Structure prediction request, 85 residues.
Amino acid sequence: MENKMEFPNLFSPIKISTLELKNRIVMTAMHLGYTPEGFVTDRLVDFYSARARGGVGLIIVGGCAIDDQGSMPDMIFMDNDRYIP
Prediction:
């Protein structure tokens, strides 16, 4: 990092209640459209795996639909056990 001195705590661990993160870098949620028909795909897993290998301390996945009323196309679904695998 070029200017690590400007953010001295960025790469230090932090504890939030019982959750301990290795650093304070957070990737916010975004809708990627990598989950056709609501199922998690290898493409989605590969996307998040690459970010985790890059050193992000906390990754927040995009929206997950709990029913068909509040969903968007290609959103992760969790309204049925068929999505568990």
Observations:
- Residues 42-53 form the longest helix (12 residues).
- Residues 25-83 form one domain.
